[in-house]
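BUG-359 | component: ligand-complex export | severity: low

The export step for NAP jobs runs without errors, but we want the raw record kept on the ticket for reference. Input record follows.
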Amino acid sequence: MGRGRFVRPVREPAGWQEGVCHTGAWFRRGGRGPIVGCMFAVYAARIDRDQPLSGLESGERPAPEARPGWSTVQVRAASLNHHDLWSLRGVGLPEGRLPMILGCDAAGIDEDGNEVVLHSVIGQSGHGVGPDEPRSILTERYQGTFAERVAVPTWNILPKPKELSFAEAACLPTAWLTAYRMLFTNAGVRPGDSVLVQGAGGGVATAAIVLGKAAGLRVFATSRDEAKRKRAVELGAVEAVEPGARLPQRVDAVIETVGAATWSHSVKSLRPGGTLVISGATSGDRPSHAELTRIFFLELKVVGSTMGTKDELEDLLAFCAATGVRPVVDEVLPLDRAREGFERLASGDLFGKIVFSNS
Ligand SMILES: NC(=O)c1ccc[n+]([C@@H]2O[C@H](COP(=O)([O-])OP(=O)(O)OC[C@H]3O[C@@H](n4cnc5c(N)ncnc54)[C@H](OP(=O)(O)O)[C@@H]3O)[C@@H](O)[C@H]2O)c1
């Protein structure tokens, strides 16, 4: 912290205020309040579908504006998701919303000094936004967490269990929540069931392996990389194989985030009546073999899944606190070295989550 500098303290009655930071960044804020400020942030300045990192910039951005029903959180840690790379490619983030501070997840300190975690799905309940506003994830419509401060509807703030560090807690609201909902809500598995997790090195995938193991599932995994397959077994998978390899048994459910590259294998790995849950398509969303015949003949279920509810995030936090399960953190980097983390995510050279620290 400490990179943000307050400039030109302004004491004015309610109404919009506009100005320029010492760096030249423009700001605007509304409502009552004594201070106008800027802060250090990492943001999407341009969209580039082919070279997404060319649009990634860092520097001063306007601090969050006061807004009825919303609160500001000092970000202590924020984790990187593939969603941030998609945003730089323009997926879910139109040019007209730029510049947009990236980052969907955060843990930090709220306005009353409490340690908190954010639920990053905005508008799911209507809290803090209009009743007709569609659901969005932080960074799609509202500024994200790769910053010193972030504003969210107050309803979206949950207490951070003391058992979890800020870095660990910051991994939970997107990748881990997604894995939790895929496994325990949408796959409907129970202890003793078997599950295949595709792309073992990913943030959602490592979460699914760890959560599945802790919940008494028989977890299989795939990875293109031998070292990652070994790590998957260390995390609790009974066996990790190359993508496409035959498993020792057909599974009750598949956790799919890789997409086109693994889709056919996912379908073929299911037992009759099994469930394929998909929440992402990193390798593309047009598999060459959709396996349609197998899907209807074996009465397989294909279920889409996105993020999770606030209740599910509360349950996930409690699950981690109670079981000792902790997110797999690949690396913690200071926020001003965020580009290194984005480069590792883009190259696939990671196992678990990359976290940016503000402390
Ligand atoms: N719907 C939602 O709410 C939601 C939430 C979170 C994430 N997602 C999506 O889920 C996907 C994964 O997200 P993440 O943050 O976990 O990403 P990540 O950490 O980048 O994981 C991607 C993993 O996919 C595997 N992979 C990538 N390309 C592959 C290919 N061509 N063939 C085989 N495997 C490949 C890799 O596994 P190996 O290197 O081990 O083979 C890699 O570790 C993304 O598309 C993301 O947008 C969706």
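Assignee comment: Attached the raw record above. Confidence is low (pLDDT under 50) at residues 1-16, 29-35.
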